[in-house]
Amino acid sequence: MEDQTQQEAYRGKPWTEPYQEVLQELEVDPETGLTDAEIEQRLQMYGPNKLREAERRSALVIFFEQFQNIIVLLLGSATVISFLFGETVEGLAILAVILINALLGFFTELRAVRSMEALRELGKMHSRVLREGGMVTLPADRIVPGDILTVESGDVITADARLLEASRLQVDESALTGESVPVGKTTGPIEEGTPLAERVNMVYKGTAVTRGSGRAVVTSTGMETELGEISSLVEEAEEERTPLEKRLDELGGRLVWITLGIAALLVLVGILVGRDLFLILETSIALAVAAVPEGLPIVATIALASGMRRMADRNALVRQLSAVETLGSTTVILTDKTGTLTENEMTWQQLATRSGDVRLPGPSTDRDKLTLDSDPVQPDDHLALKLAFRVSALCSNAELHPEEDSEAVGDPLEIALLEGAHRAGYRRKELLQTYPEEREIAFDPEVKMMATIHRREDDPEGGFWAAVKGAPEEILRISSRGIGRESRHTLEEDDRRRWRERIQRMAAEGFRVIALGERELESPDEDPYQDLTFLGVAGLIDPAREDVQGAIDRCQGAGVEVVMVTGDKAETARTIASQVEMVPDEQSKVVRGQDLTEEDRNLETEAEQADIFARVNPGQKLNLVSTLQESGQVVAMTGDGVNDAPALKKADIGIAMGRRGTQVAQQAADMVLKDDSFATIAVAIEQGRNIFNNIRKFAIYLLSCNASEILVVSLASLTSLPLPIRPLQILYLNLVTDVFPALALGVGEGSEQVMHHPPRDPDESVLTRDHWLGISAYSTLIGISVLGSFILALRRFEMDNLHAVTVGFLTLAFAQLWHVFNMRSLGTGLIRNEITTNPYVWGALGLCIGLLLAAVHLPFLSELLGTTPLSPTGWGLTLSFSLLPLMLGQLLKALGWGRT
Q1: Is residue 105 one of the residues assigned to a domain?
Q2: Which residues are catalytic?
């Protein structure tokens, strides 16, 4: 059943038709619901009300994924060649390298994957449904089209449904639409072209009821819901391989051809000059071992794992090792607004009065921070302010803190008004002692107002008083008076016109506007919705997070473009962008989703020029990511809602929020911010750039060491000289002494200066032409030094072959160790730089010197490697020639050559 293709239940667009027609098409009686027989039939027809779940990555799959690397395949080929030619020790050693690398990557990724799965653990949802005339509570997957749902505050909607009844019903649809304010619901039909965020007669799977209650008939379930369509987009979105994966594969591919080319050339030359066949095979194995940088996968894995750990310490959970580096090459961040740049929490920021605009204070309750047109103002000295804050505190059924240390309860908008009044010094509990509530007229979406009636304990003559709030146009329509600093006045037509213009300006600035009114009553039963005194208009907004502006500054300073992509209104998006200084001014280019189509040939131009994309749907977000990628950009996408998931998966790196993020978003993302802080992204970019720089440094280091080995073996094989270094000695260097300095380079902290430079060219390889030239120069210096010491040992000092080979082996080993200091960046000091201040480098050198001494003086190891203890003359040759590449390399650095 679960895999059965679901069919569409409702053929039309249910929001466009009266609910009676929807009920008729679905063949259901709203008073009795479906029968058991109908339910089973529909379950067979439409399938269970479930989304297709992403396949869980097993430990075995994660383990085998570690071998999907061309360098690892190259190592595997070297292993096979070694076994074929009877070099069992070499083969086993290379095989051990492959397994160590695989295990390192396996355990690191397994931990991250399991952490992600723990984040997505959710309880099983249930719904209250009318079945055969009675209410039953059922698992969500048993819901079918035609079921009559009953919903109330706190419920999560489990299917798409057309509303039949709505009593003060409001639904938080931010996860689906990006709209930060709960949507008030009604039951009447609306126009066909109405966007999802404005379909007020529908409720959707995955959204939550914040207020009121209602009944609805299910029109779509499972993959046919709006949530299901987004889930399908996520499945269709192709996951992009990270830039690092592409670059390492490219590097590995080059090494394959270089290795094959050199080996073929030397075999051909050896046959032509009449070399012994066994010697040719021995030389070929030595070359194969020398050409393959056995330590590269291990060091790359550990460097990425180190970055992964640092990110976890800073509240960023990364799913795959290679994704750590991707942010370092990011050129554009597409960021969601709600919950990412903003707090996802309504805040009262402005109160428009006849006297001017009042700015409310922050979390502090210091009333001196209230300003009226930038001048401090005391509400008790201003009649309009005093009454406005009294209305906002009393005309409410929310509570800030019902119990000590508890969270606020109620509609987010009402909570925001209560908090604003509280910060201005007007506390609901205290006011209720003077103005006890007699009755409440609940908010009605049709009337667009609510009121509370209070007894006047402060008036010796008694009487009653009405506090009213609601839609500005409705409050203004029933108001006959206005109010200023000291007195009331008749509301003339010019006053109404000015208020309408002011309300429009506030809405254009992104505010959610709520009008406040009041009137005296003789009886608590009197109608409060007439003859009001218009007090002013409250401007509420989901404010920007405090740390966002600094994070955006860091990203933009690093050459990373930040573009807002949201399902919210253009005006609100522009306001937030201005607050966090994401854009230079409020005239920045805003593109609305309704202006984009799938056939829009100008999308690439819009993507490059627009600062904000507003009212966009999931498909448009996905197209935007694809367009930017096709133009050569490396795209990071942030978000927390279901509507962000397809683009999160398609992006080069998707970044989901851990606290507010939905399960679907986290599942699609490459990285989850456990603290929901956009500032962590700036840290991640810095870490990613340093990780790439570290990978580049150790790649140059390892390859120049390996190239020197190739040069030594190649030149020796083309002459009458014996091989100055044995295959097993090369393997010992590549697996032991080379790896530790390279590892020290890979786990270094890096430089803070990386955020002062633009992103790398997305097409730039791990190693550029300049780097390959550097590798050639360094390897030539090391190779000549080794051959020089070897020839002198044989010819000048007449050492036997065993002692001469030991001199060559140790010269090569120590030259490679000192070579780590040639990896400092151009422009850094000779004595103090990122290499000399890296404690891991000094630890690695100490360890490697000990291992080299062991290779010569431990009987078992020296016999295996073919080495012997040296005389003072041999050590003199070794140390003097091994220092030559370091000295010449530093000279090249001083001349401004040798980029790393």
Answers
A1: no
A2: 336
Q: What is the DSSP track for 73-112? A: HHHHHHHHHHHHTT-HHHHHHHHHHHHHHHHHHHHHHHHH
Give me the chain's average pLDDT, please. Answer: 82
Q: Which of 256-265, 392-401, 675-684, 860-869 has the lowest mean pLDDT?
A: 256-265
Domain limits for position 423: 352-540
Decide: residue 71, CB within 10 A, 0-12 exposed, 13-18 middle, 19+ buried: buried
CA distance 900 to 702: 12
609 lies in the same domain as 553: yes
Q: Of 519, 525, 430, which Cα lies nearest the Cα of 482?
A: 519
Q: What is the CA radius of gyration of the chain?
A: 36
Secondary structure of residue 300 in the 3-state scheme: helix
Tokens read off for 874: 């041999």
Q: What angle do CA 856, 858, 863 make, to 5 degrees?
A: 70
Dist. CA 660–CA 677, nearest whole Å: 11
* CATH code of the domain covering residue 196: 2.70.150.10
Quote the CA–CA distance of 579 and 509 in Å, as a whole number.
11
Pair (295, 168) in one structural domain: no
- Total of domains in the chain: 4
Helices 801-818 and 872-894, axial angle in degrees (round to 10):
30
Query: Are 563 and 510 found together in one domain?
Result: no
485: exposed, middle or buried (C-beta count within 10 Å: 0-12, 13-18, 19+)? middle
- Whether residue 94 is contained in a domain is answered as no
Which phi-psi region, left, alpha or beta, contains residue 592 (left: φ > 0; alpha: ψ -120 to 50)? Answer: beta
Pairwise CA distance, residues 566 & 643, whole Å: 10
Determine the angle formed by the axes of helices 243-272 and 679-717, rounding to 10 degrees: 0
Helix and strand counts by DSSP (H, E) for the chain: 30, 26
Domain final residue, candidates 198, 225, 252 = 225
Q: What is the CATH number of the domain that holds 301?
A: 1.20.1110.10
- Residues 703, 830: one domain? yes
Q: Which of 130-139, 179-188, 233-242, 720-729 has the lowest mean pLDDT?
A: 233-242
Amino acid at position 810, single letter: L
Nearest Cα to 673, choosing from 316, 222, 203? Answer: 316
Is 501 in the same domain as 520? yes
Asked whether residue 747 is assigned to any structural domain, the reply reads: yes
118 confidence band (pLDDT: 50, 70, 90): very low
The percentage of residues in the chain with a pLDDT greater than 90, rounded to a whole number, is 33
Query: pLDDT tens across 461-475, in order?
Result: 778 999 999 999 999
Note whether 798 and 745 are same-domain residues: yes
Q: Model confidence at 540, in pLDDT bands (50, 70, 90)?
A: very high
Residue 1 lies in a domain: no
Domain boundary among 484, 509, 540: 540
Distance between CA atoms of residues 89 and 83, nearest Å: 9
Residues 580, 654 within the same domain: yes
**Phi, psi angle pair for 730, to nearest 5°:** -60, -45
Can you give the three-state secondary structure of 1-24, one letter per residue? CCCCCCCCCCCCCHHHCCHHHHHH
Place of tokens 């010569």: 856
Pair 702, 831 in one domain: yes
Specify which residues 167 forms β-bridges with: 213
Mean pLDDT of 31-60: 83
